[in-house]
Here is the input.
Amino acid sequence: MLVPLLRDRVSLIVFAISAVAVVALDAMPLRLSLICAGLLGIAAGVIGDKAMRTHE
Here is the structure.
C-alpha cells in the first residue's frame, strides 16, 4: 500500500529510518518504539526536506 507513495529520496529515507528504528527499539516498554520511530521519521523528513530545498 505504501510503495506508490515512495516516489522521492526523502520519502525513502523517512521510510528506512522509521523501519530500522522500530525494529532496533523493539525492547522498549509500552510499545514506545512505535512513537520513537515516528518521531525519528518526522525529524528525518524535516531535515531531508530542508536539505532538498537548499539544493534547488
Observations:
- The helical segments are 9-24, 32-54.
